[in-house]
Amino acid sequence: MKKHARPSQREPANARTTRGDSLSERPSLPSRQSQLKWQHGLVILCIALAVLVGRHFWQRSRVNEFRNAAQVATESQRWGHLASISKMWMEYRPGDPEARFAAGLAAYMRGDESTARDLLEPIEPELPMFAERCVLMAKMASDAEHLPAVPIEYLKQAIESNPSLTEHRRLLLRQYGLTFQQQAITPLVNDAVANEADTPAMYVYLLAGSIVTYSDGETFASQWAELADDPEPYLVMAYRHAAQAKRLNETGLDTTRKEFDEETVRLHQRLDDLSMRYPENTELILEQVEEASSEGDAEEMRRWLAKVRVSSAGDPRPWHWKGVMHVMRQEWEQAEAALRESIRRDPFDWIGCHQLGTVLAHQGDVDASKRYLELGALGNQIRREITDLKSIDQLTPSLLRQMHRFALSAEQPLIAERLETLVERATR
Description:
The protein is mostly helical and 428 residues long. The protein is 69% helix and 0% strand.
């Protein structure tokens, strides 16, 4: 007997499955071989990534080894060793700015300034070693072959890049002193105070800048005069260095009275020749005023002071010499006004303080007179002690205390506060 399927179990030939797809349209599963290929590719990719990551960390470790070795060589001042390290470093990582700086430093310290310049010049401002690079470039430009504006610009860039360092400020103060830019010194020291990047020696430029001498100052200035298109400022600088050294007895030419007098005559003639050549030069005019003052000639002082240009009104020196002139003429009111203006522009003018104290005593103001006379005496004591030092980097705690007292009495609280901190640091 023939069996028939139940109607519920039958499906029309052209009917679709309840899953919505025909069996022929279903995607086939990947073969075993395809799966193995995919797995092998994944393994290879993982290995490649591991190699890349490992290489990255190995390279970073290698760079750290170079960096640490360079630091040790620098701290121990083994410049030949630093040159070898930086050479390998640059071969390993061509163009690495840290390697370039290390190589440039090694070349500079070994006296190869040409190579040092080539290595250091490309270092960009955004890099962390840029400030130190600028300091080295400034040192290499601080010679007779470069006008002083070149190292000054490098040092300004260094300060802008890293305001917390002290070396570039110290060097810039020397450049300002060497070129008699006294009015640029106060803002520089104030900026150092604000950034806590000051050193005791900086305050010598501020409190007693007129007694800082440079044994190479006249020579440098004379050579700059030959190098410059306009020799005027450098010829004047050369004279001022010679005159300042003589006033402070730093030349050794005063071993006999005859030699001293002969040098005085030569300097007088040199000043007169320069004054004829550059009659409107303010520095020469003020030098003539000072010479007239030393000779006690108030009328000659008046004649020269009348030639000072209005543009020099912010300079305390014309006011100082006007005050001295009026003191010589016993014109007390005019002397007081001029000396107060001078001290307002330069609170550390100890000679002006002494002169003002004398003027106030003549006017019967005993208390004010005593204050200024004491301030002048303290400033003079500081000057003498600084003059006796072999180097302005050798300030004693006792001298720092006197400088602190002077700043406090001169009503310069920020300077006084920092000097107090330096005293505490020096006595620990």
